Amino acid sequence: MSQHDDPADQRVSVAQLNSDLRHAQLELLSAHCAIHQLRLHYTTDDLARFGQRDVLRKSAEAATALSKFYAAIEQRYPEAAPRPAAPVPGATDEQVAQAVHWFWSYLRAQRQLYWPSARLLDPQPKSVMAPYFPAALLDRIRIVELEGARVAVPEFYAQVRALGFENLPDIPHMESLTFLDVVAFNEKLTERALFHALVHAVQIAVLGLEQYAELWVRGFLRTRAHFTVPLEVHAFSLASKFLRPVPEKFSVEDEVLHWAADHRY
């Protein structure tokens, strides 16, 4: 992009750049979740001893290339004064209960906000999702594409940050958000974003809203990053499974029931 470009064209180019950047970020999050699962189940010694050499080599080369690429970008950031890291306290039982209440209240309120403008799933995406999700869920789920608008940052974020907790989910830049049986898309509906959102709808249906909220909050407090919360890890991993070149047919509801029974959330 040149400084001599037409301003309107430049705005379009910047918008496309950031859209592509967010898409790449989501791919990286999916990869991060898959790697997180490897780290939970296998030691580095086991992977080095028993992993296929060509797969390990290619994976390491890809990770190294990505690290160098993003490090080169980071070096070009404008200089900023370093900000001392605030100590992160442990949460008391009362704080956890309050956070859970904030979270499920927020999901309910957003569901009420978007319900009037939401619509039922169109036949085409509904047919794509049909092999994976219960028909009753697909019949009642509603979607809203915000087309330029964004889901607002929750009001309780300020209070959570005041307690020293950072790295909260970047709500305005997430592809989709599930508010019980309403899915809001910050941009356009994509199959991946829809699948991910519907996994959360199944989790809420199976676990119940309050238990879902408590598991999400406790997962975040334990892992300190939203994409390593087990509820999110499962949604990312199932969406990746759905997107494989030769997709495997499976029941998301069965998967969620198994994880719940095994206390993996």
Characterise the protein shown here.
- This protein has 265 residues and is mainly alpha-helical.
- It folds into 2 domains: 7-74; 93-261, no CATH class.
- It contains 11 helices and 4 strands.
- It has helices at residues 7-41, 44-50, 53-74, 93-114, 123-129, 135-140, 157-162, 191-207, 209-223, 230-242, 252-261, and strands at residues 119-120, 142-145, 176-179, 182-185.
- A 4-stranded mixed β-sheet has the order 1-2-4-3.
- A hairpin with a 2-residue loop joins strand 3 (176-179) and strand 4.
- Helix 1 crosses helix 10, helix 4 (93-114) packs across helix 9 and helix 8 packs across helix 11 (252-261).
- Mean pLDDT is 82; it is low at 80-88.
Features:
mainly alpha, 4 strands
Which structural class should the secondary elements be placed in? mainly alpha
Instruction: Please state roughly what percent of the residues sit in beta strands, choosing from under 5%, 5-15%, 15-25%, 25-35%, 35-45% or over 45%.
Output: 5-15%
Report on the biggest sheet: 4 strands, mixed
Rounded to an integer, what's the Rg over CA atoms?
A: 20 Å
Q: How many domains make up the coordinates?
A: 2
Give the overall silhouette: globular
Helical percentage: 55-70%
Overall residue-averaged pLDDT value: 82
Which strand order do you get reading across the main beta sheet?
Answer: 1-2-4-3
In whole angstroms, the N-to-C terminal distance is: 45 Å
User: Low-confidence runs (pLDDT<50, min 5 residues)?
Assistant: 80-88
Total number of helical segments?
Answer: 11
Number of strands: 4
- What are the secondary-structure elements, in order, as H or E? HHHHEHHEHEEHHHH
